[in-house]
Design brief:
single chain; about 200 residues; alpha+beta; Elongation Factor Tu (Ef-tu), domain 3; 2 domains; six-stranded antiparallel beta barrel; two-stranded antiparallel sheet; 7 helices; globular
């Protein structure tokens, strides 16, 4: 058996044989798939969807986060508009995946730009609705509190790190719906921006 494809096991049969189910979509995980996350394992399809928008390694990501990321990709325009209005925005919002104070970036990079950006916070985001640009005044929503700031640098994410993108002089100045982006924001107090993390939002 097996000649000309007879007796060849289907993908479904291979997945059943593997005996593993994806916790996000509830479909079988292929026998040769390997997409571990912090508290489980994903099928190839879900892993690819997450990696399309998510910059953190899968191994540092929980099943719950993966499910929310995939859900966000499938949101309708009406659902996005409702989400924007729920935080008091009027034209654009982005989901924040992580944040870091500028002073904690690579030292060789910050030495050259600390005077200009020292009190800023770098946000790793995905634009869900509308468009962001350098100079926009934005608000952050975190655990029921709002913080304000101004975008000093905005760019789509074309490199693995903000430092590398700056060194290559590839800052685009704007980012639109559906695009992963970097937002460097000056906020008072600067410590407020350091609290921002997954599930928080920045909006105009």
């Amino acid at each position: 058996m097996g000649l000309f494809g007879f007796g060849k096991k289907s993908d479904d049969e291979s997945e059943k044989k593997a005996g593993k189910t994806c916790p996000v979509c509830n479909k079988g995980i292929g026998k040769f798939s390997y997409n571990p996350v912090k508290d489980g394992e994903l099928c190839d399809n879900c892993a690819e969807q997450v990696k399309e928008w998510w910059s953190k390694p899968l191994t540092d990501t929980t099943v719950d986060e993966c499910g929310k990321i995939i859900y966000k990709q499938d949101m309708s325009d009406e659902e996005k508009q409702a989400e924007l209005e729920s935080v008091g925005g009027t034209k654009a919002y982005a989901d924040i995946y992580s944040s870091i104070a500028f002073r904690y970036l690579d030292e060789s990079f910050t030495e050259r730009t600390m005077e200009e950006y020292g009190d800023a916070v770098l946000l790793d985001c995905v634009v869900m609705l509308g468009e962001f640009g350098s100079g926009d005044r934005v608000r952050f929503y975190h655990e029921g509190e709002f913080f304000e700031g101004v975008i000093t640098e905005c760019s789509t994410k074309d490199y693995d790190s903000f430092e590398e993108q700056c060194d290559m002089k590839m800052l685009t100045g704007e980012a639109s719906e559906g695009q992963p982006c970097w937002l460097l924001v000056k906020t008072e107090p600067a410590e407020a921006g350091e609290k921002l993390d997954y599930d928080d939002k920045v909006f105009v």
